[in-house]
Amino acid sequence: xxxxxxxxxxxxxxxxxxxxxxxxxxxxxxxxxxxxxxxxxxxxxxxxxxxxxxxxxxxxxxxxxxxxxxxxxxxxxxxxxxxxxxxxxxxxxxxxxxxxxxxxxxxxxxxxxxxxxxxxxxxxxxxxxxxxxxxxxxxxxxxxxxxxxxxxxxxxxxxxxxxxxxxxxxxxxxxxxxxxxxxxxxxxxxxxxxxxxxxx
Length: 200
Known about the structure:
- The chain is α+β, with helices and mostly antiparallel strands.
- The chain has helices spanning 32-35, 66-76, 83-92, 95-104, 107-111, 118-128, 133-162, 167-181, 187-199, and strands at residues 4-13, 16-21, 24-29, 44-54, 57-63.
- Helix 4 crosses helix 6, helix 7 (133-162) packs across helix 8 (167-181) and helix 8 packs across helix 9.
- The termini are far apart.
């Protein structure tokens, strides 16, 4: 079983990413929450993965956080939910919102997720209400830093575009600066780091 991948992003789309590891390109299916935080092609990424075997081949599903992977595992344990649907569910609701809805047994909120009908929402609320509490604390700790990082990225890209840089280059430099900072550098420091990347 492949539990994790570290390699270069070759290409990415909202539902998958191709990661090159040792000259081999792995196609990994991902939720939107992971897609939004992926680095640009050519940069390194580290993904937590789950391997699913089928008669017609092997499929990999990847996540940037342990919270996403834990929720994926719980969802796949529900009758009627396979890995594709589990990934789609994670694309239709943020991890912290999903944990909150499951913990509260809120089947109405779950039913609003694309691909989840009334019966499935009820089954999810019933079967996962207690199980999801085991990852609630970890999810709460992870959600806020992830949100802060996304907000930093958006502000940083906007600032670089206003300085005259092309959005794609600005996004790549911003991603590099935020990862280098690890949440410990203020906005001015991130701007300097991004500009250093753009001018090097």
